[in-house]
Amino acid sequence: MFLAVFALLLAALPALLASNAHAASPTTSTTWNVTVGSESRSGAIQTMAYGPKKIWINAGDTVHWVSRSMEPHTVSFVDAKHPAVPFDLAITYMTAPTSRHTIRKGQFRSSGIMAPAPDAVFPDAVKSYDLKFLEPGKYHYLCYLHGKAMSAVVVVRKAGKPYPHTQADYDAMAVQASNAAIEHGLDLWADALGAADNHHVFVGASDMTAMVNRFSPGSIVVKVGDSVSFDMSRNAFPVPHTITFGPPPANPFAPTGDPANFQGGALSSGVILPPGFGPPPNAFTVKLTKAGTYPFVCLLHAGMGMVGQVVVQ
């Protein structure tokens, strides 16, 4: 009996080996999923990472990127003619998608602006982006809005090579990295709140890992005649914000109103950048000369919940 079973196993062994070899050496193309950014449930913390940052695929495979944060990003394979200089809305190649969805080494390709939904600033934003890789090599890419703080690589091998990881592996890597980055962002937020007071409000907080899109604190109480300083110095990354009271101005990037004598109505800092990343002023000081409750927002991140109010007694 044993000899008969053993003989059957020997007879089946070539077929089993061939089946295993086929599974380990795929000859058909595969689509791989990569996330673009992530965020805390409230939207307060936005991470600056692709999930995962490195993926191994084969020539002929496609990568499918999907936006996972309200903060806009791009997936951009840059070249000398399309460098990753500081982000500027007026530079078309930073915001517009390229038309081709295949890539070879050295070619410029970009998703254009990616976000879960279009908005007033980026009405043409897309939620996903696909790119098919035609030849082996290392393909480095980044986000035009966040530069080297948000970069990743696709390693493309010859067609038919066994894959070192499954999609489930990459998904787990992405979740683990996202959770760690969000936790880091919560620490940045707590530190900003601990250093702030009713007369000194920090506008966001950020580093190369995470962004806090909140005012710290978000609600303050002062007396008539007091001044409040809105401080960008907790940002170690060139993230833009506005401090805007009243109706949004026609040009959100330009300052409006008189911050030295605010009694309600329209007042905005315009877009300001942290110290070291843009021209002064890098803070916005408002003297409040009339009692009342005055809401304010960051025009760029209000949809993520970056809003506040000052009560003047």
Main sheet properties: 9 strands, mixed
* Number of spatially distinct domains: 2
Helix content: 10-25%
- Fourth-tier CATH superfamily name of the largest domain: Cupredoxins -  blue copper proteins
Q: Summarize model confidence as the mean pLDDT.
A: 91
- Give the number of DSSP strands: 19
CATH class of the largest domain: Mainly Beta
The radius of gyration over CA amounts to 25 Å
Percentage of residues in strands = 25-35%
Protein structure class:
alpha/beta
Q: For the largest beta sheet, what order do the strands appear in spatially?
A: 6-8-4-1-2-12-11-14-17
What name does CATH use for the topology of the largest domain?
Immunoglobulin-like
Examine the secondary-structure arrangement and name the CATH architecture of the largest domain: Sandwich
Shape: elongated
Distance between the termini: 96 Å
In terms of per-residue confidence, which ranges show pLDDT below 50 for 5 or more consecutive residues? 1-25
- Secondary-structure element string: HEEEEEHEEEEEHEEEEEEEEE
Q: Helical element count? A: 3
